[in-house]
């Protein structure tokens, strides 16, 4: 069975999950992060090339219902009960800057960004707004997205950037959402600071880099989630180019998804592990919750005064 992760950007080292999903949290000795295990449904498998080549930038609010991840139905395995994400209403210039930044970030690739709901067209829904507490996470979670343990595409994924706790700055919100979107396309965190997949400090704008880099949050590790790795290193630009095609090029036919005859149904609950800071722990099957208890001061709001600061 394909394993999936929930990739979570945390702004403080604590995490809770709302019932009915069980979450057991523990803290490794000497670490400033926590490990957890949770039981959540497993999405269906996917091919290598993405079918979801439309990214819906949704800041108008949405009600998310539990179930196998499907943006066309506003279903997300992240939700344990119906959750309403309120609209995000930043100053017009902040939203314009956010959209312009994301358009520039994904400009090299064969993907369309839209503010209009694509309906039944396969798409990634990038939601802006609200707080992580709506999903039962701790209050310092900045974003959450599904991430395949095989680094495959999670089709029709819903990804979330919780703007209530981010600086109301277009570049900050853009880089956070770009990372969440890229998780759905199979990208892991990496150690190249100039790339939006990095948690390391960087003094200027980030873009997807055409450069091979080690994966990890603050220390290098193989790419992937759980007890196995999907690749030794990653080139975020090359992977997105492979999965989305080049801008202006006709879309390539995706490889057909295959599933063993004895594979479990998509809705079957499966075991989850949770890790952060370069440490990895995994369940036998199912989801892995990847928790990175890090942030940079420029991504945290004014109410972060007194919390420990880490690189993004």
Q: Can you tell me about this structure?
A:
The longest helix has 15 residues. This protein is α/β, with parallel strands linked by helices. The two termini are 32 Å apart. Helices cover 12% and strands 24% of the residues. The strands form four sheets. Strands 8-4-9-11-10-1-17-16 form an eight-stranded mixed β-sheet, with helices on one face. The chain has one domain: Collagenase (Catalytic Domain), CATH 3.40.390.10. The radius of gyration is 17 Å and the shape is globular.
Helix count, per DSSP?
Answer: 3
Please, what is the CATH homologous superfamily?
Collagenase (Catalytic Domain)
Give a short account of the largest sheet: 8 strands, mixed
pLDDT averaged residue by residue = 73
Helical/strand content category: alpha/beta
Based on DSSP secondary structure assignment, what is the total number of beta strands?
A: 17
Outline the fold blueprint.
Layout: E1 4-10, E2 23-26, E3 35-41, E4 54-58, E5 62-66, E6 75-76, E7 83-85, H1 92-106, E8 112-114, E9 124-128, E10 141-148, E11 158-161, H2 170-184, E12 213-216, E13 220-221, E14 233-234, H3 236-244, E15 269-271, E16 273-275, E17 287-293
Parallel strand pairs: 1-17, 4-8, 4-9, 5-6, 9-11, 16-17
Antiparallel strand pairs: 1-10, 2-3, 3-15, 5-7, 10-11, 12-13, 12-14
Q: Can I get a quick summary?
A:
The chain has 312 residues and is an alpha/beta fold. It has three helices and 17 strands. The protein has one domain: Collagenase (Catalytic Domain), CATH 3.40.390.
């Amino acid at each position: 069975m394909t394993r999936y992760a929930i990739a979570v950007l945390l702004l403080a080292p604590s995490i809770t999950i709302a019932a009915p999903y069980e979450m057991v949290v523990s803290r490794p000795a000497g670490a400033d992060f926590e490990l957890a295990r949770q039981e959540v449904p497993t999405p269906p498998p996917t091919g290598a090339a993405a079918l979801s080549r439309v990214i819906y930038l949704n800041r108008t609010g949405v009600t998310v219902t539990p179930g196998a991840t499907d943006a066309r139905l506003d279903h997300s395995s992240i939700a344990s009960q119906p959750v309403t994400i309120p609209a995000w209403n930043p100053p017009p210039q902040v939203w314009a800057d956010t959209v312009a930044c994301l358009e520039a970030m994904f400009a090299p690739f064969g993907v369309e960004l839209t503010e209009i709901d694509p309906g039944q067209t396969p798409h990634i829904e990038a939601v802006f707004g609200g707080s992580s507490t709506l999903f039962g996470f701790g209050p310092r979670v900045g974003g959450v997205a599904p991430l395949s343990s095989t680094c495959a595409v999670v089709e029709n994924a819903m990804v979330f950037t919780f703007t209530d706790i981010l600086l109301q700055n277009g570049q900050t919100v853009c880089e956070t959402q770009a990372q969440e979107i890229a998780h759905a396309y199979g990208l892991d965190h990496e150690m190249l600071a100039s790339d939006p997949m990095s948690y390391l400090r960087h003094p200027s704008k980030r873009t997807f880099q055409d450069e091979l880099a080690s994966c990890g949050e603050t220390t290098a590790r193989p790419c992937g989630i759980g007890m196995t790795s999907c690749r030794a290193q990653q080139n975020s630009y090359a992977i997105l180019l492979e999965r989305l095609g080049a801008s202006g090029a006709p879309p390539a036919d995706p490889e057909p998804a295959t599933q063993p005859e004895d594979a479990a149904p998509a809705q079957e609950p499966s075991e989850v592990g949770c890790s952060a800071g370069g440490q990895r722990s995994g369940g036998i099957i199912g989801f892995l919750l990847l928790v990175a208890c890090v942030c940079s001061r420029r991504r945290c709001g004014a109410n972060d005064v007194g919390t420990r600061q880490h690189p993004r």
